[in-house]
Amino acid sequence: MKNSFKLQVYELVKKIPKGKVMTYGQIAVLAGKPKAARAVGNALHKNPDPKKIPCQRVVNQQGRVAFHFAQGGEEKQRELLLKEGVKFKDKLHVILKSNV
DNA sequence: CACATGACTATCC
DNA sequence: TGGATAGCCATGT
Question: Which of A3, A56, A57, A79 lies at a 20 to 30 A Cα distance from A48?
Fold first, then answer.
């Protein structure tokens, strides 16, 4: 296994542009498995390179951030994302799309 | 190889 | 609208 599904997830996550966030489902689709959102989260859960993988830019369908389990400073990451241009609806909820 | 686990999503009540 | 349940997929033991 050289190109495991999770490896693709890492690549996709690392390719997330600054000031933007991706949902697990979206990443799963890009990886080729629209239903593998769980596997995506699992892949990030292993997170071999949390310093290189902006898992904080990866949120769930609700827009809820997941870095609660990531590098440990959720508030710090929140400010970091805010600096990048990511707007937060709430402390743990980012604005994915203005779908009102 | 089979079972158990997990940072999800969609559907139902 | 919100909580609970079921379904799907990959990884690790």
Answer: A79
